[in-house]
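Bug: token stream looks shifted between consecutive jobs. Job 1:
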Amino acid sequence: MGIIKDAYSLYIRDMLIFKKNWKTSVARSIIFPLTLILLLGNLGTTVNHAPIAVVNLAQNPEAMELISDLNSVSALQIYAMTNQQQAMQMLANGYVISVVVIPQGFSRYGQIYIYTDVSSPIASQEADAAIEQVAAGFGARTSIYNRGVAINTNYVYGAGSNYKSFLIAGIVIMVAAFGSMWSGGFTLITDRQLGNLKAFMATPVHKLSILLGKITYGISQSMINGMLALAIGLLYGGTIASGYAGLVPIIWFAFLSALGFSGVATALGTRINKIEVYSLIGMAITLPLWILSGAFLPTSTLPRFMQPFSTYNPMTYAVDAVRDVMLKGVLPLSTLIYYSALLIGFAAVTIAISLILFKNVNPV
């Protein structure tokens, strides 16, 4: 209990220092996510080049003319196919947003069939409207299917339904990770420069207490920053599809991200003496991880050689979990457990490394 009590005392000390400068810290926490949301939040509100698979079973002049007219619509990107099963598989995997089937014997006043991924409301509605408008020019009737059927969506198109929510999920995790990097490890270096760390280590206070105090402080700062970013995003138009209940998994995954990167921060803080160097290295670590997590755009849009890095990036799973809650409203229990286990494992490794390094830390 002595270790926990000392860690709590050191944590309170850092929080009191934060309290003296809380206005600056809160302003910094607000400005960064707000700037990103203002700059990027309106992306994805219109649909351009939505991918559509057109299955031409008629193979006649009328069908070719219909496909040509669909190709002329800027909102659509047409993939002409002859295999309906393959086209439906592309829809199920999220590679296209709709499948248009032109049946055998199609004529100018015939009927076409549209299968749509409705998990992207804005994108699917605009795509359907464009298809129906072209079909109307032929006097053709349309039958739209799969409305209400859950289909796995590639969020490069699903983002069109609410890109603000898509982006905010990434920002919340980014702010949580960055908050850890600029809190616990930052104060560790500051204490070394001011001589406070040397004084702490000259007392009977256990080294583990010092480390736990810094990690706890980093997590607290991260959660404050992350929740402020979420509040800003919701006020600006983001939504949580599962309602207030979705706050629980969002907070949980923000906490796990903060925990893991607090371990990274304290590990760096044990070996770096200058704040300038720490800032550069911290940014060099967190910024690429954030980009590779799919925070801005889906990981499927990354160059092929980068995608394996995304798979092994712990931030990817935190962003995916928060994004599922905000966009789909559902996070399966198996996914919750799997993603949580990965992030807990990441946190355990980083904290263990920081503890090993802190045992031999130079307090001067």
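Job 2, same session, no restart:
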Amino acid sequence: MRKPVLTIFYQFNPWNASIGGIQTLIKIFIKHAPPEFEVRLVGTGDPELQPNLKWQAAEFAGREISFLPLFYLKDDNFRSFIPTTVKYTTALLGRYLSSDFMHFHRLEPSLAAWNWQGEKTLFIHNDIHTQMQAAGDQKAILWRRFPQAYFALENLLVRQFSQILSCHTDAAEFYRQRYPSVKNRVGYIKNSFDNEIFYPLSQAQRDAGRRQLAIKLGLDEETRFILFAGRLHPQKDPILLIRAFAALNHPNMHLLIAGDGELASEIRTEIGRLGLSDRVTMLGAIALEELAKLHRICHVFVLSSAYEGLPLVVLEALASGTPIVTTRCGETPKLLATDSGVVCEQRTPECIADALRQVILHPENYPVASCVGTAQPYSARTVIRDIYSKMLSRWELAGNLAVS
């Protein structure tokens, strides 16, 4: 009996150190795909290992997949003059990659899929309305310069999707109101974390891990660690985070920055300007397993973003027993309980510093069990398997209807 085929479209190589929640979510979808499905990924390749424009058998996270690299992308953590999404969309044009299910994580590539047959799903990862209106770097998202053109393109392309799924409830409502003709296809979807990688330690193990990290970095053994992880991109506003850490002004606290991106040099300059070189460590892009170790031993995870959906890294931190400090953006403020994190009402260094101080100096108010409990409904074991179960039911129903 033929298996249903899921084809995932996104501009990355899952075997490379690629930073971002979309990449992580796709990896989870591949890892937790049930054996009843054939999974294909259309991404970017490595010229030494993967010839472009040829389907090839591959393995990821113990799962066999078919992989089609469209072109070579050296490092997707940095933006190039020509946006990667444009290159990816252009490479798809003129191809026919229909399958039973097609998952798109960017709108633009679906332009190539207009005549492809199959169930198409668009995943919305950010609050696009806030994203378009956000102040600051106009290069953060190219479409911000041409909002009318973006929404005109979106109005055309959303009609082809069987489902439009957002991890942000406000964004889902925005799409229902903006596109009433497809409002019944718009829904909320939980982002999820890999519960086999992100889990808590005992308090003794956490304390031992913190001491080992402090010794490794040449710091006092009682150092308290603040963790940020993500792309160094204007959306995440890491410069605001550096200024907030300076405002915290606590000699026994250390900021760890895991990630890379176009703002790396600017961040290093700001760290030097504020005299924080001995109190901030930039780790660069690290493997997911290494990030999980940091989540398990840090005292708090912090987000200073201008706009978000529901960052997977928040779920990963909570699942590891680590409380959150976040700006008021995206779905995170709706997710957090009073005993699993603090939401900053103002995007200022002083407000973020106060929240960090509140969490770090009073850990008893943010117990591990509360953090883990907040994340638990989002575990991949339940969320992803439920999605695949519903996909399989729809496919079987469609097959039965065709036969009858």
